[in-house]
Amino acid sequence: MKDIKLTYNQSEIFALQELYERTILRDSPNDIEGKLLISILLNVYKKIRTKTIELKPKYTIKYTITEAIAFMLYFQKVPCVSIYEQRLINITIEKTDRIIL
Question: What is the pTM of this model?
C-alpha cells in the first residue's frame, strides 16, 4: 500500500500541530494500545514540527498506512475544541478510508 499524502494550508497545519500538542504530548495512557498509538503519532508530530520550521503557504505531510490508522483510532476518541479541528480530523480519516478500503 502506498503512503497517504495530505496537503494543508498554513492555518490548517498549525491547528493540526496544536491539536497534537494538546493531546498527544499531554496524554499518558495506561493501556498498551494507547501507548502504542501515542508512540506512532509522535513520529507524525515530529514530521509536522520539522515542516513548520519554515513558513510556507502549503504543507504536504505523508502518512504511512500505520500512522494513518493510528491517527484514526486515536482521534476518534479525542474531544475537539473547535469545528476546525474536527474538520482536519475528518479529512485525514476520510482520505485513509478511501485508500485502505
Answer: 0.83
